[in-house]
């Protein structure tokens, strides 16, 4: 009979312990996992990039649903285990689920420490530990306002940088005189403070929080000296304590953490404990590298191999704030038996400090230039006697009297047992062996060795090893890049524009290290759109980065002439409009007048020089640009509906007109077409539009992500609503979500395929606050978008586009 | 490129052509596309894509290349040669900038290019 294994907690330690077990014994246990969080296992250390917008939740998943199914693990989400009955070997959850075990793993992690000042329990006081916290911060950030972060350590600074990147006013309060005082001396703390302040974050040191002030929710933080700092949210990042209540209640031995031996067994040998909740040889850890080590022992032990003892770890850490390089490892406490070597280069904001004891490195802090971090860490772990290289040690591995080594040569020079991936404790030889055994890309190396699969900061080193081993045949490209000008993909570029507050095409190209001087015809229009959509009102549209049609607001034809399509709102026209169109066609000798597939009229074969005059005449009759040329709202097709039709259930025409009048002018990743049908007979073909409405007696069925171009896609249902107001609200929110998330030139169905139905449903239907926030953002952007481009040009704007250069005096050179 | 001529036409002020953009010059002999790059170099090509006569003057200018507006061929502004997998070539005419004015080689008057958007 299979034995039963129950796991309490589904964080990074639990996930890794199961991997280690399955690697050895995939079928030995029937596994049940309880997770207080309502989700699968994700990479907690990457929450900061999610907060700053550089990554999404999907990017940081460790085990997806498929993994649980494949390994036949029964994951019970959103259920906290409240008691362990050791006599009967069973656990029970708050919801009442009971599970029997032969072996049990406690992996409950730790709890964020909340300073018990008055007001600490007001709504708006958050901790920084899980996805809920990040979502709460993001939703606060969407409303703007100010945030106070209490605690200037790694977590606090990452939270502050993330909130700032999301547009909040951020103040960091730190009790000590300088930031990260345990790792940095005063001057390095100052460099760090300056770098943080340079991003517009206020830092107050020696700040003792007296109270959190507010009536129904947080309003401010009051310091001991009486200063009040206004705050819409307060994030407490002052430390963690191992989560031991469950173990303690079950009568297991605990101290600061759950006590374990070198095999990671608690005082009850049937029960293992792993991760931040444990205390091993009098140490509790707060980083992932040690708990991955622990997980190896647990996996081995559960598989019946008791030879793999865990002997404690030395830890190293990096601050994950884009643009600030900080690495620290080991022990920095001062003591009589210790010496220090410090290097400062103020002009380059570089600071390096090594702490030595008996000629061996026991601690290292690098600021500004962290490239040598792993090398120092290796010397530290090996206990290498550094007497011989003491004079030059601080300059790093590459020091040879000349400039820094070429990075490839530096990697080549690393010893086989040099550690590459600190999180997972993977050394160079393991990676090189994996490559020799056939792995030829980053994903392959990640899957087989785990290297660079956690915080990702060693990705560059792993890629260099791939390049070194495979030579030319290795092409670095983890994602499909936007174009030949960059290795970054669309999603990364969009996130970095926000995260780094990049506000112009040159700024993007400079900061993201474009490989060409001014891009190409693929990336420039995409960047122009991303900037326009991200910074409405602030970004100045770059005309030279637009395709000719969008630059001159007409469609170029094969013979170099243009076509002109005025709007006919919802397909409705009038005799006056038709007369004006006829007059224009006559006056400018326009060869073809055609009814389009989008319920309006196309004037084809207009000479470019005539465009402003044609538009001026159309404007005079009340007509504006139909954006038939644009990545923008094209048409809202309607059928006659209840206004005339014997089957019509709602006023489909006036609804379509209302939608088109509200939405026109907005730029979108690709073109957007809509349709409104008065009943399920669907005469406006709403089921093959980017957004469609089918009216029924009881309201409106909303559909989206259809198309009938290169691929024919039927729409999928979004939801059903009762009033026209709601149709507008959902339609606007959906359009805005698409504007914010889609890659340039992805129609709505491609975007949906990438982000998934669940995501869209949740963002639009499931979360009313979010829906309204989307609507607000759309409305804000529209005020800058709804000017008729034709009337501007008829009035003289961009005149150079519509006239040739003056003919020069040819006689002079004849 | 070798200047095969001593005759230069003064065709426009540098500012008349937008940076990373182009203008068209209509001559009896045909249309010439005049380009200005991000670093203020000026180039002139016959305004007829070697593919299907697309008006290159209407394309997106990047580095010293232009992407044709009709089917996205990329043409070198320096040589008139199609880049990448495509092959074909349009005539490139020498230009000079003097005192903020764009001068175009008189050669353009001898080549019988037919206008694309005439
Ligand atoms: C004028 C029109 C044909 C007609 O005479 O009826 C037309 C003409 C063009 N279509 Fe279209 N499409 C027209 C309705 C459609 C429709 C039918 C509709 O909208 O109900 C479709 C299929 C529905 C759809 O889009 O899902 C359609 C699918 C396409 C596609 C394929 C899109 C796709 O996602 O696969 C393209 C190519 C593209 O956009 O990249 C395209 C592109 C074009 C372009 C813009 C090609 C180009 O880049 O130059 C044509 C411009 C001609 C011009 O100068 O006006 N046209 N095109 C129709 C204008 C409608 C309007 O009033 O704005
Ligand atoms: C924002 C942030 C950034 C970080 N950055 C880094 C970094 O750069 N480098 C680094 O090395 N470390 C970093 N860390 C620390 C690292 O994430 C932790 O060391 C690691 O996640 C601990 O793993 P764990 O499995 O012990 O605990 P956790 O990952 O916290 O998992 C514990 C899980 O158990 C669940 N649980 C608790 N009690 C119960 C119960 N009774 N029943 C059911 N479920 C329960 C919890 O909900 C939680 O999901 C960071 C942490 C945070 C929060
Ligand atoms: S489909 Fe319905 S609403 Fe449309 S015209 Fe026919 S009957 Fe009327
Ligand atoms: S005409 Fe220029 S690419 Fe086809």
Q: What is the terminal-to-terminal distance of chain A?
A: 102 Å
How many distinct folded domains of chain B? Answer: 1
The fold-level CATH name of chain B is Rieske Iron-sulfur Protein
The CATH homologous superfamily of the largest domain in chain A is termed: FAD/NAD(P)-binding domain
In CATH terms, the superfamily of chain B is: Rieske [2Fe-2S] iron-sulphur domain
**Count of helical regions of chain B:** 0
- Share in β-strands of chain B: 35-45%
**Largest two-chain interface:** A-B, 31 and 43 residues
CATH topology (fold) name of the largest domain in chain A: FAD/NAD(P)-binding domain
Largest β sheet strand count, sense and barrel closure of chain A: 5 strands, parallel
Query: Class of the largest domain in chain A, according to the CATH hierarchy?
Result: Alpha Beta
- List low-confidence stretches of chain B: 112-118
Oligomer: heterodimer
Q: Count the strands of chain A?
A: 40
**What is Rg of chain B?**
13 Å
Sheet with most strands: strand arrangement of chain B: 2-3-4-8
CATH architecture of the largest domain in chain A: 3-Layer(bba) Sandwich
Structural class of chain B: mainly beta
What is the average of the pLDDT values of chain A?
90
Supply the number of structural domains of chain A: 7
Write down the secondary-structure element order of chain B.
EEEEEEEEEE
Please sum up the structure shown.
The complex is a heterodimer of chains A (814) and B (118). Chain A has 814 residues and is of the alpha/beta class.
